[in-house]
Specification:
CATH class of the largest domain: Alpha Beta
Largest sheet: 8 strands, mixed
Strand content: 25-35%
Number of strands: 19
CATH topology of the largest domain: FAD/NAD(P)-binding domain
CATH architecture of the largest domain: 3-Layer(bba) Sandwich
Distance between the termini: 35 Å
Length: 342
Amino acid sequence: MAQVDYLVMGQGLAGSCLAMHLLDRGKSVMVVDRKDKGASSRVAAGLVTPLTGKGLNPAWRQDACLHYAEEFYHRLEIRSGRKFYHSQPVVRILGDEKQRGKWLAKDDEVRRWGEMTDRATVEAPWGALRMESGAWLDTKVFLRVAMERLIRHEAWMEGEFSQEDVSFESGWVQWQGVEARRLILCLGAYGLGGDGWFGDLPHRSAKGEVLTLWLDGMDESSRYHADGWIAPRGGGVWKGGANYNWDQLDSIPSEEGKEEVLTKLKRWVPVPFEVIDHEAGVRPIIRNSQPVVGMHPDLESVGFFNGLGSKGSLMAPYVARHFAEYLCGEHQLDPDLDLAAL
């Protein structure tokens, strides 16, 4: 039976980042992934947006998360010779006079993330914000690069997790021919709800549908947000999204979801476009779209990393580093992230 320090279930953004941080600390790891094409990390547009929501607010610990995300991704790009993290300014079209007033009333700590601009390309009667520190992560390329690194370390296998396959023996966690000192579940929405070890955690996961569009005549140097968003991918190809469905939690693209996204975009996108692809995934959302890490209160060898929501590209590296440091005994968990608070 193969023995490792950590058995990580799920190779999405959370599992990939955690596993690489553990490897960097000299720990042995086995990552198990079911290669679900509809997993949220693979479907995600990978957007890093400094100011989000109707309130135009920065994310939790955005300075630290953004600084470390850029460092982490660029380091892996150099190591792999592959490009997957792309800086890209974001233009946010203000929706009405109330939102404009809300922005003008923000303090300097928030307003440093954006500035009013007349370079909107899109009609903006109440003005627009330009955010220079926006970016996007090509999640498919990133996850492939992470998997290749894990394979080189003999630390990756394909498999389907079931709690019934896990047993505990003399300080070891056993699962399908692998023994580990600790089992860490990084299963995204698939690992929330139900009757599993963490099934009682409150969550409000939401299905989101993303379109690939052929859209000619727009400035491709920036991404645009208004009612929905469009993000250039080069050569007239754009991503467009998205919606939130809290009832139908599957990764099957639906005509209703497609029409919802199209209705949003047609209200403000100034040029014709056509749909060339359609994907769906479920965002794992716990509390206020803030990730959660920690160990099970009764099973001290079973851990949990989940809840990245729509900000996984921004937060995953920072939170993974913190959790890896905790697992290696370097410090206590940040109370803002600690599973015990839930």
